[in-house]
Structure formats: structure tokens, C-alpha cells
Design a protein that fits this description.
271 residues, 4-stranded parallel sheet, 11 helices, 14% strand
Length: 271
């Protein structure tokens, strides 16, 4: 059994486990996510065999006591042939690290990964009620506003103001003239100035999501277009239905529809 020791937040964990799961599928090895064994209990994976507290505690303390070897992927440019050999030959071990990445295998088994991270029905309830009120012919834009840790991430390069996000919405509207646009705004900033958006965009239908992370992720996955600062949150939302995604890397740049790219492309260009 390969135990995947995850770090970071929800969508980092989904992608990290997805990579190791795909590698395991290709090589006939079982995998289990230590994080989804006890946390983020919103997905089909969490209810599968081995995803439980006992598995998590066994792996955690097995590693602490030196009973389980730990294979680490922390270097972006590392040569991991030795680590992969251990993954093939050791009966039980732990895999950790953001650079445990096998892009081709992930895409090969993408459908299975999506099935593993299918949302529990309870997650869909509140977003489903909201989506049911939206006119069928509306253009649904999902906007993810990432603040918090982005104040220091990449030296604050992607830490955008309300006015910069408002500008992005305004420009998106110019790409869909004569169409009704519904904007769903999700984010991690509890102090987001909703009034500033409403005042600046009086003719736009804005919805500020108030759900838990899984509910917000499901809501974004049901949109037709996605944009936001570069983040695994929008990337995973795109994964479910291959929703075109635009990562805002320059807040004052005008974009076109062709800048909204499918998951399979954006996935290979993650930061």
C-alpha cells in the first residue's frame, strides 16, 4: 500500500493524490490518501475502503516510529528514479511532496480520478438550489478571488484588489454582448467588499457564494467559464467538466475568449 501524505489545502490535496493514484493504477499498486482518510469528508473517495481514521493513524505513527519508509518529492528538478523503484518494490511506504507528478498518467486516468472525487449529494444541495434559479440562457461565469496567503505568495504578484477583479468582470462582459451574464464569486477573503462590486456593476447579476469549500468548488464546476488568480482551486473546478479557465496573471491585461484554456492545458502549467 502506498500512503499519500498530503499537504496544503483541499485542491492541492486532490491533485497530489490524483498523481500518485494514477501512478499506482499504472503499476498495479494500491494507494490511499492520508488527508482524505479523516479530513474533507465531502467526496466519494472518503467513503472507500481504507479511507478511515485507523488507516491514517497507522500510516502517521508507522512513519514516526520508522516502520514505514518515506519517499519524498520536494525538488522540482529532482531525479526520482530511485524513489519510483522503492514505490514498486516496498510493500508499504509513504509518498509525500508537491512534485510527485506524472502528468500523462494523471490525464490517462482522469475520469477515474474525477469519479473518486465525485461530490457527495449533500454538497450539491445548496448550490443546486441556487443554480436552479438561474435562467437557462444565462452565461455562467465563476470568479475565484484568492487573497489570504496570496499576499506573500510569489511576493504578492497575484494579490489583486476589488477594483482589479471588477475590471476583469467588466471586460468579460464585453466578450458576451447582448447576453445575460451571471457571475458567481467565491473566495477566501472574509472581508471582501461585496458592496463595491454591487455598486460598480449595477447591471450584472452577482452571487457571492457562502458555502463550505466543497460547495464552492461544486458551484464553480457548474459554470461555463472560470477565471481567477492562478490557483489549484479553479484548476480542479475546471477538471470536472473541462470548463475553460483563464488565470489572471496580469490584472490590467485585456483577455480574449481564446485565453480561456481547457483543464488538460492549464494542468501542465501549474505554478
Amino acid at each position: 500500500m502506498i500512503y499519500v501524505r498530503d499537504k496544503g489545502r483541499l485542491c492541492n490535496n486532490i491533485l497530489q493524490y490524483g498523481h500518485v493514484y494514477a501512478w499506482g493504477r499504472e503499476h498495479g499498486r494500491q494507494t490511499v490518501s492520508m488527508r482524505f482518510a479523516y479530513k474533507y469528508q465531502w467526496f466519494h473517495l472518503c467513503h472507500t475502503r481504507h479511507h478511515n481514521w485507523l488507516t491514517y493513524l497507522f500510516a502517521k505513527y508507522g512513519a514516526k516510529m520508522g516502520l514505514l519508509p518515506v519517499v519524498s518529492f520536494h525538488d522540482e528538478e529532482g531525479d526520482y528514479s530511485h524513489e519510483e523503484q522503492l514505490m514498486l518494490t516496498r510493500r508499504h511506504l509513504i509518498v509525500e511532496g508537491w512534485y510527485a507528478r506524472w502528468y500523462d498518467l494523471f490525464l490517462k486516468y482522469k475520469k477515474d480520478i474525477i469519479d473518486l472525487f465525485a461530490f457527495d449529494e449533500g454538497v450539491k444541495t445548496a448550490p443546486g438550489r441556487l443554480l436552479a434559479t438561474i435562467p437557462h440562457d444565462s452565461v455562467r461565469l465563476g470568479l475565484h478571488i484568492r487573497r489570504g496567503d496570496y499576499k506573500t505568495f510569489y511576493d504578492g504578484r497575484f494579490f489583486y484588489s476589488d477594483q482589479q477583479y471588477i475590471r476583469q468582470i467588466r471586460h468579460f462582459l464585453t466578450l458576451h454582448p447582448q447576453q445575460s451574464v451571471q457571475v458567481f464569486i467565491c473566495g477566501n477573503d472574509p472581508d471582501l467588499d461585496e458592496a463595491a462590486f454591487t455598486k460598480a456593476l449595477p447591471d450584472v447579476s452577482l452571487t457571492f457564494a457562502k458555502g463550505n469549500p466543497a460547495e464552492d468548488l461544486y458551484l464553480l464546476s457548474q459554470c461555463q467559464w472560470l477565471m481567477g488568480a492562478p490557483s489549484t482551486f479553479t484548476l480542479v473546478a475546471s477538471m470536472y467538466h473541462d470548463v475553460p479557465l483563464y488565470w489572471i496573471k496580469e490584472a490590467d491585461r485585456d483577455f480574449t475568449k481564446s485565453d480561456f484554456l481547457p483543464f488538460d492545458h492549464q494542468f501542465r502549467h501549474i505554478l
